[in-house]
User: Fold these one by one.
Assistant:
Number 1:
Amino acid sequence: MPDIDRRHYGLDWLRLIAFGLLIFYHVGMFYVPWFWHVKSNYVSPAAEPLMLALNPWRLALLFFISGVALRFAVDKAPSARRFAVARTRILGLPLLFGVFVLVMPQTYFQLRQSGDFSGSILDFYLPYLQGRLPVFTPTWNHLWYIAYLLAYTLLIIPVAPLLRRAARSRLFQRYARTPAAILFLTILPFMGYEATLMHWFPITDDFIHDWGQHAHRLTILLLGFLVAKDRGFWNSVGRLLPITVVLAILLHFWGESLARAVLGDSVAGATVRLAFQVLYAWSCILAMLGFGQRYLDRPSKALQYLTGAIFCYYVVHQTITVVAGYYLTQLHLGVWREFTLLVAITVFGCVISYELGRRTGAFGVLIGIQNHRGPVAKRESPSDERAPARPAQAEA
């Protein structure tokens, strides 16, 4: 990365890839046996291996990129107060609109499919607001990511000067310029979280009691913030690229079986398996960062358009998938025809939402569109925007 202060187009592409994987992951949740809002008639474990391969790193990559983007945005902001107000508006308004309007149909169709509610969606809305339903409402469902990101952003803004100084410290510079340290030392805190906090505070997405998840998400976001403009770190990521690809493949297919064969179910075996699991996730992230830096670091019209659209896609996609899936599976079309239609409807609905939103001021803001300049709106700021998630986790 020759110019650390210029826009990271490779990270923009990776952000699109991470959000795209998230959208398709939620389509997959409609088909695998894990709990989700609505389920297909064709539930099967067939897609589980792919989803389990993505689970440990897809959201961690997104939070890491969020930290990089936050560093660039904070450094360009005219004042900390103005930046905090702007970011609260950009993230807070879609979150509120989602909780009180956009997410509501997800719970409605969930309870209709389970047989716990049979009235109209208008009859459903007041009990939804009042919390008089068999599930917790009102809720943010998949939009928990926005709430967490906003909270972490507001936490980091006041201490940004201290974080910049920490990034320039001799100790951190030695870490950033040592590929082996980046690869192996970085996993230590996450191993600690998995061995302690994640047992005491399992993932809930309720924010208040989610300390294990907070530790994961905030740490990876802070790491992205610290290394965003560190040339040594990005050079190390480039040097690690072949190693991280091979390591990720080996650990995914043979890591756990090797540790179990050599050490069995002993404490040492459990520790090595945990290390391999976390190292697999981090190797995938480093491989993606290296790939983006080497092969994707260039602008394009498609990138410009999708960078402006992808956060809107994220905000609206799950409601589209839930509603479409609820009705499609009643038609008994067969799994592949149903799946193809569900993907097409989800993508088409995201595109239409963005195209409508960027042509209307208030609605666009509510569904996560930041800039409004008519039909040819352009983004000028770096990309803005989940640590391993468990298979049974419905949201994310």
Number 2:
Amino acid sequence: MLCWFCAKAARGSCRFCARGVCEDHAKFGPFLLEVHRSQVRGRSEGLVVEDAVQCGTCRPRSQPVPMPELD
């Protein structure tokens, strides 16, 4: 796989859009793996990876998107 930006060999792929990125273009940030209800506290908690690879070009939405067709 080649880097989306410079065509060098990719060292990873963006967690959100899967574009290949080399070490020069890779960015890192949090990624939410799952959300579950805590049985101890009774509230929602998330499992987050702190340093997931990101390309910096894609823009994951900050709010959930309704998908009523899956209900």
Number 3:
Amino acid sequence: MLKNSKILLLVMFGFLFVTCNQKDKSKEEKETILKGTMDIAVDETLVPIVEDQVAVFEGTYDAKITIKPKSEAEIINDLLNQKATVAFTARDLTKEEREVFNKKKIVPKVTPVAIDAIAFISNKGNNDTLIALKSIINFMQGKPEANIKGLVFDNPNSSTVRYLKTLAGVKDIPKEGVFSFKTNEEVIKFVSENKGMIGVVGVNWLSQPSPELKDFVAKINVLSVKGLKSDKFIAPTQNNIAEETYPLARDLYIINCQGYSGLGIGFASFVGGDIGQRIILKSGLLPIRVPGRKLNIRNEIIKEKE
């Protein structure tokens, strides 16, 4: 009887050991830097470029990344409250925000990955394709501008609103003449159908419009902007962003607060690496590191046989 009890205990112990090992193994295999599932909170103004990156990443590795478009304010709040652990944003964390993470013993890993720009758009019916940044600032300060009927933003809590409020030195947007929707798509559609309105969007929505958006983009003008210390009107092109002549360029970041070696690290490394930077270059934005090109140099020119 005692012998049978010992055998039973050994069998039970072995079963528990195998079960625990399987659970641990399953947990480890659930997510690595190149495998598993992950949500990423994405600034709504940057969705097109992130969609391109995710598509290639998923096609290369055994990973599934779900994009969660949100306003900038929502993203930062979600990170601070640990409702999101990885984000693609148009700004770095502030000193105060980093202190919040330090108190939670979390060290965010912030990876700069690209430079894009805020673009102003107007209806094709408007003959003028130029705008002075000073005029936009005046309008944000509540001063009337004859050539601006209204400003149209994607969201009152978006990165574009925050950027222009900072430039204008105001805490709140004007109560009149400023309109907001939920997405950049809605801004583009509204401006394409309403003369006199100036839309404020992320430039990658214009450089890579979706098939559904192409017809609306064809009905708008992308305005050239005169900076506060310039007499020239500059278009938001990749070349002008690279030469630092366009006045509304901004850095893009991937913020990883996972606290372990998960997909957040793998995805940030991918976007910051050669393939990811080439995707950014092709999209019309400026990669943080311009991918190199290999050239084969021959000492002799071999003539082809006639």
Number 4:
Amino acid sequence: MKAIALQQYGSADDLALVEVSDPKVAPGEVLIRVRAAGVNPVDWKVAAGALDPIMEADFPLIPGWDVAGVVEAVGLDTTEYEVGDEVYGYARKDWAKNGTYAELVSASVRMVAPKPASLSWEEAAGVPLAGLTAHQALKRVGVGAGDTVLVHAAAGGVGAFCVQIAVAKGARVIGTASERNHDFLRSLGAEPVVYGEGLVDRVRDLAPGGVDAVLDFVGGGVAELSLPLVGAPDRVASIADAGILAHGGHYVWVRPDSAGLVDLARLADDGKLSVHVERAFPLSEAADAWRLSQTGRTRGKIVLTV
């Protein structure tokens, strides 16, 4: 099969389209014919060796954890899916090796779910990692109906999902973003505020009594900065700043979760979760997709089409 691979830790410049062996399919797994693969910052961070202290890597390394595609084959004792089923998933294994930037990828059934019928392949591929991150972060801080939630980097890949999921739960959402993204946030149901100096005062103007929960998807100390706005530190969660643990908050590292993917698909098919695809690149242009991702200025998701 064709795949994008690295021969050693490196950067976008080291990505190459190569021929590799088809992946093996273990019991309890499905083999997916990839139609689209999501691009996430963690992909190029893995490639640069940033996760080497906590994750084994084997080369040639095919990046990518997000996938949408069609079941090509099933492993022994895999009864949940049949050949031809349309699925999507967060195919993060315990080591970096056979990722989703390929024509085929194998994945455990615990990593996948039926593809949302209302979403295109590209849209579906943009959901799993970012959508599950938002889903699990909101659950960690107990967001529910009537809560007022502050979401940092609300227009980004994870933030946009967080806004929509929180609104679907009946929460009021205040989201930080640059002014060019304020109309986008309003379209998702959030009240936008500009980030930067004076942020706490601007949030208090909108919510004089403070907020019930804070979700940080950008880092840079904003989680700690937001602590005076929230009544209890255990209602603050960050995916970018482990330092919040020292203040009693949560550091969230997303896990594969089939049930969570089912929830996200239901929201999408009920019209409560949309996916903004900033740009779709062909697989052969994965390097350009990474360069765009590395600008940190994209709205929504970047995907590869296979």
